Amino acid sequence: MSVIWGVPYLFIKIAVASISPASLVFLRTGIGMVLLLPVAAFRREIRPVLPAWRWIAVYTAAEIAGPWLFLSTAEQHLSSSLSGLLIAAVPLIGALLARLTGSEHQMDGRRVAGLVVGLGGVAALVGLNISSSNLTSVVEVGLCTIGYAVGPMIIARRLSHLPPVGVVAASLALSAVAYGPLGVAQLLGGAPTARALAAAATLGVVCTAVAFVLFFALIAEIGPVRATVITYFNPAVALVLGVTVLGEPLRAGTVAGFALILAGSSMATRRPAAGRAAAEPRGAAGTGG
Q1: Which of 40, 128, 220, 235 is at a distance of 20 to 30 A from 166, taking alpha carbons?
Q2: Please, are residues 8 and 288 in contact by the beta-carbon 8 Å criterion?
Q3: Each residue of 112-145: pLDDT tens digit?
Q4: What span, in angstroms and rounded, lies between the C-alpha atoms of 66 and 63?
Q5: Cα 279 to Cα 82, 134, 140, 195, 269, distances in angstroms
Q6: Looking at the domain assignment, is residue 122 inside a domain?
Q7: Where are the alpha helices (DSSP H) in the chain?
Q8: In a domain, 285, yes or no
């Protein structure tokens, strides 16, 4: 899972070279929809999610439709490795939102220190690697991290009683329909390369359809809390692939910033041993790049 959700940043970077962000989101969600809807239908997971369509629409906007467009647009200007490292701030944003919304009533000194350390890592990444001309792209990745943090909260509070594959299939269908008109028009009006189309196909098949099925199998095997460990390894995969495959630069500030984000995320999200079992959520959502 760490590899499957660490490689999207590489393939997004390749795809947006000749495919518009809206078209890429349409292709990715459309392929995922075509593959997952039959699975959800076979498992009889479509009908149960229909009454919750409003919250599924909100979840779709927060977790898929918004973040995937923001990330694809940002990677037209940012390196794939840096984008992946900035996404590593999702646990920090999640911890902060949990405190602001009241789902976390205690914020002890360790967690506060973790937030400070982690946000310092984000500042190091941005300050040492980003020029002023790319700040808009950084904001887009920031919006993506907020969406990735809000999505699991919606699942836990409003959709945890629903079958997960049915929820994801419905979300992909909503996104594909929403992006269809613009995505198809821009796709027909452009000249995507075979390399870009292959990258988009990989995103749809491997990084979306296969990824979600495997992720929910992982949750069933080891539980949602332990499954979130993949969040700490995804950015490392993105960094290695960006540097080795695309020749993106590796700077000392990049390594230091990433280390601070990981350390801060661990400190800010770790629960006391006595409270872990009671606090374990019934469902979880991934951050699939």
Answers
A1: 235
A2: yes
A3: 888 888 888 888 888 777 776 688 999 999 999 9
A4: 7
A5: 32, 39, 31, 45, 12
A6: yes
A7: 8-15, 21-42, 53-60, 66-74, 80-87, 90-100, 109-129, 135-154, 164-189, 194-204, 211-222, 224-227, 230-245, 252-269, 276-279
A8: no
Domains in the chain: how many in total? 1
Quote the CA–CA distance of 86 and 64 in Å, as a whole number.
Answer: 17
Tokens, residue 83: 């984008």
C-alpha span between 174 and 164 (Å, rounded)? 15
| pLDDT tens digits, one per residue of 3-56 | 999 999 999 999 999 999 999 999 999 999 999 999 999 999 999 999 999 999
Quote the domain boundaries for residue 34. Answer: 8-271
Q: Is 65 domain-assigned?
A: yes
Q: Is 72 inside a domain boundary?
A: yes
**DSSP per-residue codes, 176-207:** HHHHHHHHHHHHHHS---HHHHHHHHHHHIII
